[in-house]
Design brief:
By secondary structure, this protein is mainly alpha-helical. The chain has helices at 11-27, 30-43, 71-84, 106-118, 137-147, 166-169, 173-181, 192-195, 199-208, 217-233, 240-247, 258-268, 275-288, 300-307, 318-329, 346-352, 358-378, 382-400, 413-420, 423-428, 442-451, and strands at residues 47-51, 57-59, 95-98, 131-135, 184-188, 336-337, 340-341. The longest helix is centred in the C-terminal third of the chain and has 21 residues, at 358-378.
Length: 452
């Protein structure tokens, strides 16, 4: 259902901001454009400044190209803030959009519930969704966690019970005010991102230019894929030189290997919708950001190998390749070297392409494909799906690559499948006398669905 713009969005206003967005996209001068747009919004009273308690502020579905926030990242970010000393000036980039009214709010509500559930208790549920953040999301998530006395992902920040509390943190008075009253937000009318579809990306690019170290490889790939979607929706062929250039305007740390990231998007995004990239973004929030540190880097060598992997003429195994990235992102702490994941190295990836392993890889691809079909058929909630598919992907890759971190005790794909399938799903299929995933029969899956 499309929203009808309020009368305040006049033709002149629409054209003025459209031009600034287009010029910024073409030149990369997004910081200046965003500052000019803010002035225009305040003049036309479609934006204002407001202090809002953290439990009322969620994350915009387009935040960080859809990557959103993770609990561990938010806690590590909060630790850095406390070490330097909380500053209202440093937090002045906090930017948000009003949460749309019903029925336009449903996607935002669903996404924010998912972020909380994937955080494993590190981000509390919202009391009410009033604002959707585009800048300041991790800071706000940390404030929410402190206010709710959540379990701490950073040992030194936790009290005797391992939880966050304002008393234990002994931060400056300004931080206490932020926890209680919230950040001071630049708030936009909810229809601003409807009126100007390019606005959300421009805002994040402008803010990220000032903090480019936070931009991950998956975020860059999501950005690239969204540009592909926009080009196809507009009836044109994606221009990859333009796409790479645009994704690099924010100067992310992965800029030196941005061409390789583009190769991965072209070959393994999961279709125009980027379904496999979206899967990676959910996985990163639940698995890759753990108690040992914030989000990891995959690195140019690894990404070059997975982007150019060749299984032979006509052979493609997208779920296996995607699982390879997941397994590396979830590297244990002793396999992180200077922030780069090193559990999966090029020689491990080479094992997947050996002729003698081809049948096993093909069976693994079928297992991973059918597991996703099972989740779709049973309408498994997104956060549960992420946990189930994530564990399955990791263990399958460790088995294929002879890793013992998650593969210990598994001698076959069937063993892995049975270890990952939740007990209640196995029970629902017990009547047919075969294992729910290893049977790999669509008829069986449909039959299970009819029992629910």
């Amino acid at each position: 259902m499309a929203a009808v713009l309020d009368a305040v969005f006049t033709k002149g206003l629409l054209e003025q901001v459209h031009k600034l967005c287009d010029d910024a996209e073409a030149t990369g001068a997004r910081v200046a454009a965003w500052e000019a747009i803010q002035v225009i919004m305040l003049q036309h009273k479609i934006a204002w400044n407001a202090q809002v308690p953290p439990e009322f502020v969620g994350v915009h579905p387009l935040n960080r190209s859809g990557l959103g926030v993770s609990g561990a990242d938010a806690h590590h970010h909060g630790g850095q803030i406390l070490q330097a000393g909380f500053s209202w000036r440093k937090a002045s980039d906090a930017t948000a959009v009003e949460c749309p009214p019903a029925p336009f709010h449903l996607q935002s509500v669903t996404e924010n519930e998912k972020y909380s559930k994937l955080s494993n208790g590190l981000i509390p549920p919202l009391s009410q969704l009033k604002l959707l953040s585009l800048g300041g999301a991790h800071t706000n998530a940390f404030l929410r966690a402190v206010k709710a006395n959540c379990r701490s992902a950073v040992a030194k920040l936790g009290d005797a019970k391992g939880c966050l509390s304002i008393e234990h943190l002994q931060a400056n008075p300004e931080f206490g005010q932020a926890v209680e009253l919230g950040l001071r937000w630049f708030v936009m009318h909810w229809q601003c991102c409807v009126a100007w579809p390019k606005l959300a990306k421009l805002i994040q690019a402008a803010l990220n230019t000032r903090a480019s170290s936070d931009i991950t490889e998956i975020e860059v790939m999501l950005d690239m894929n969204s540009q592909v979607e926009a080009a196809i929706a507009g009836g044109s062929e994606p221009d990859w030189d333009t796409i790479r250039s645009s994704a690099g305007f924010t100067m992310p740390p992965c800029m030196p290997w941005i061409r390789v990231l583009g190769q991965y998007v072209q070959s393994n995004a999961g279709g125009t919708s980027g379904s496999l990239l979206v899967e990676l973004s959910s996985f990163q929030k639940a698995f890759a950001c753990n108690d040992h540190g914030p989000t990891r880097t995959l690195g140019s060598e690894f990404m070059q190998k997975v982007s150019t992997i060749n299984f032979g003429p006509g052979q493609k195994f997208p779920f296996v390749v995607n699982a390879c990235i997941k397994a590396n992102l979830a590297s244990p702490v002793h396999k992180i070297v200077d922030g780069v994941c090193k559990l999966i190295v090029p020689t491990n990836i080479a094992l997947l392409t050996k002729k003698g392993n081809r049948q096993l890889v093909a069976e693994a691809e079928a297992l991973l494909r059918d597991a996703r079909a099972l989740c779709d058929t049973l309408k498994i909630p997104d956060h549960n799906r992420t946990m189930f598919i994530g564990k399955l992907d990791i263990r399958v890759m460790h088995l294929l690559m002879n890793k013992t971190v998650e593969g210990a005790g598994f001698s076959s794909l069937s063993d892995v499948a049975q270890a990952c399938i939740p007990t209640h799903l196995r029970a629902m299929c017990a009547w047919c006398g075969v294992h729910i995933v290893s049977c790999m029969l669509v008829s069986c899956v449909v039959a299970v669905r009819s029992l629910l």
